[in-house]
Design brief:
alpha+beta; Immunoglobulin-like; 3 domains; six-stranded antiparallel β-sheet; four-stranded antiparallel β-sheet; 15 strands
Length: 665
């Protein structure tokens, strides 16, 4: 719920920024500029060279890279080289040090991107003195400030001196988009914010570890050791520092191995996700009391013996002993943090272990410095095992998230949305029964009256189960949108709280075999077809310039279009046409044409839709919403809008269009 509220605040802020940027909506935006060179510039026959593509990206924008799963959603940067003349390709396109980010809200996976400056390299081998490298690049830049996404594409040519006459003329070069500069502070801040949030999550896990039966009883014993000797406070501080150092060491080791490409592998490939699923199930069952996860006793005893040496070395081994003997309770929690961290930025495992170990170590040091506080701690008891059992249920529930990721990426359809929800409802229902004392587990003590905290937690879990149930019938459950499989994977969808209206039949819609509208809406994917139908039924046109990789298009659909007020108007009062500007479907050759804007041949559905947006509305960013009177070829009925998370603004926009359409009659 906290993440949901944070998301709403961000959307409101983005909406406000979009209003400030409204003068830009009616003009083309070119937030990234490509340039290219060959290294070395004059390679000899038989020599390998590299085509180096440099991309300068405007402040506040980012450009998707080329090295993540193309089925994830965002537009993966591609470079297509036409028939090689005098050279051959060596390997594929390589992105140089992009950022990496795991997005659980929209894409449910890890993507890579550049801010400020991007670089791609393609190796080639020269086979002739006369060589010519010709092709085109295709990429997408997006902004979290304006909420817009812009396709960035164009041709490039590099040739040897003998082939220089074939290079584009100066006039043709002018048609290649110009742009930009400088690094983006906003996008650089985003990963830092994510790491900061992860730090607090990891610290929370560390605090939970303190409450487990493997750790909590050790606090008074350890504090008593330090308070009974000279200089004990200093040694206690050193003891806590060593605990932090040990955990951060393991985080650093993982960070060394978990680079951007490895993180992408971990977050999308079925093998690590299936492995994580098994590990989390294993951890969860252990927490429920089926068995204990312990390290070899010989290893623990060996380390413990070295702690008797005294001095700094002795304190270090005392800290190491604590880490080892508490492993049966802390291992699953620390392991969960490391698994989550391995799918993010390079420093994320270090940040995670720092947060976890600080929460774990501070109480030992704090109580040694202020021993009077010890008397205020609750006594050890059965409540510690209850904490452990709750964590076990949570571990098992989270395990299915990893299985879901693999299921979605590889389209196994083993864990569609209703199956995932059914499993979660069963798990949290069992947790509810446990907390209310209706079932008991192996390590539970004698049952008595429920404590107030346990009753409150049980009630909260029950409320969560009640919240999940409507999802089985198609409710969107927006608060869990980043955790659940997409609604499109659900077989049964009831009313789901949305307006239930039967739109008129649109017959056999062009491109409907591979393109779909969200939220059960019906409409078109071809402008001329939509226009003809709108004239037939006497309704205005709602043009949605969108993209498969447009994250803010998805946010508009999820947070604005889904509102009953908006959905009702779209269903009843407009004919919708969604024009995907990044779709790669190649059209029949007789439909190709050369654009008057950039002189390039438009072969794909996406290229033609984007060209239509540019030539007709002088805009090249998505989302872009236009209301047209299909009876006229004039300007939009009202000023087009882009990303705006304010539902009332969008309702007013749609209402203005209807009023203007009626006035035009």
């Amino acid at each position: 719920m906290k993440n949901m509220n944070l998301m709403k605040y961000k959307l409101v802020l983005l909406s406000f920024l979009c209003l400030l940027a409204s003068p830009l909506l009616a003009q083309k935006i070119v937030p990234a500029k490509w340039s290219w060179t060959l290294e070395p510039a004059k390679p000899s026959v038989g020599q390998e060279a590299e085509i180096v593509f440099q991309v300068k990206i405007d402040k506040g924008w980012y450009l998707y890279s080329s090295d993540f799963d193309k089925d994830l959603g965002p537009v993966v940067t591609t470079v297509n080289i036409k028939n090689p003349i005098g050279f051959e390709l060596v390997g594929g396109l390589k992105a140089i040090n992009p950022h990496s980010k795991f997005d659980k809200e929209i894409w449910n996976g890890t993507y890579t991107y550049f801010t400020g400056q991007g670089e791609f390299r393609q190796k080639i081998k020269i086979n002739s003195e006369n060589w010519k490298i010709e092709g085109n690049y295709d990429s997408q830049a997006c902004s979290n400030e304006s909420g817009l996404c812009v396709p960035i594409k164009g041709p490039f040519v590099i040739a040897s001196a003998n082939a220089a006459s074939d290079l584009p003329s100066d006039e043709a070069k002018k048609k290649i988009p110009e742009s930009v500069s400088s690094a983006t502070e906003a996008e650089q801040a985003a990963p830092q914010e994510s790491l900061w949030q992860f730090f607090w999550i990891a610290m929370g896990a560390g605090l939970l570890a303190l409450l487990t039966p493997c750790v909590y009883p050790l606090i008074p014993m350890t504090v008593s050791f330090f308070t009974k000797q000279k200089g004990g406070k200093g040694l206690a501080f050193l003891y806590g520092s060593f605990i932090v150092l040990i955990y951060v060491f393991f985080g650093t080791i993982l960070a060394f191995f978990a680079g951007a490409s490895f993180a992408n592998f971990l977050s999308t490939h079925w093998i690590p996700n299936l492995l994580f699923f098994i590990i989390f199930i294993f951890f969860g069952i252990s927490f429920l009391g089926a068995f204990e996860i312990v390290l070899p006793s010989g290893m623990v005893n060996s380390v413990d013996a070295k702690s008797d040496k005294g001095g700094i070395i002795g304190v270090f081994f005392m800290a190491f002993t604590l880490v080892l003997v508490s492993f049966s309770c802390t291992g699953p929690l620390a392991g969960s943090i490391l698994i989550a961290a391995s799918q993010g930025a390079f420093v994320k495992p270090i940040v995670g272990m720092l947060g976890f170990s600080l929460a774990f170590a501070i109480p030992f040091t704090l109580f040694a410095v202020f021993p009077g506080f010890m008397q205020k701690l609750p006594k050890s008891g059965n409540w510690m095992n209850e904490v452990k059992v709750v964590l076990g249920f949570l571990e098992i529930a989270l395990a299915f998230k990893f299985l879901s990721v693999a299921d979605q990426v590889y389209h196994w359809h083993l864990l569609d949305r209703e199956i995932f929800l059914a499993i979660w409802i069963a798990i949290f229902s069992a947790l509810t029964l446990y907390l209310f004392g209706k079932i008991s587990l192996p390590h539970d003590g004698p049952s008595g009256k429920l404590s107030i905290p346990r009753t409150l937690v049980a009630t909260a879990v029950l409320a969560f189960v009640v919240y999940l149930v409507p999802g089985m019938f198609g409710a969107p459950l927006k608060g869990l949108s980043g955790w659940l499989p997409p609604l499109s994977t659900q077989d049964f969808k009831g009313n789901s709280g949305e307006v239930s209206i039967k739109p008129g039949s649109t017959g056999n819609v062009k491109y409907a075999d591979f393109l779909k509208l969200p939220l059960g809406l019906t409409g078109f994917f071809d402008y001329q077809e939509a226009k003809a139908y709108a004239n037939q039924v006497g309704k205005p046109l709602f043009i949605d310039f969108t993209g498969h990789g447009c994250v803010n298009c998805r946010k508009m659909e999820e947070y604005v279009w889904s509102d009953p007020k908006v959905l009702k108007r779209l269903q009843e009062e407009y004919v919708i046409v969604a024009l995907y500007c990044d779709d790669k479907t190649e059209l029949p050759k007789d439909q190709w044409y050369v654009s008057t804007v950039d002189g390039q041949e438009k072969k794909t559905l996406g290229d033609q839709n984007l060209d239509f947006q540019i030539t007709r509305f002088n805009s090249n960013a998505q989302p872009h919403y236009v209301l047209l009177d299909p009876r006229k070829e004039g300007a939009p009925m009202v000023k087009p809008v882009a990303f705006d998370a304010n539902v009332d603004h969008f309702v007013d926009f749609l209402d203005q269009g209807v009023r203007q359409y009626k006035l035009n009659k």
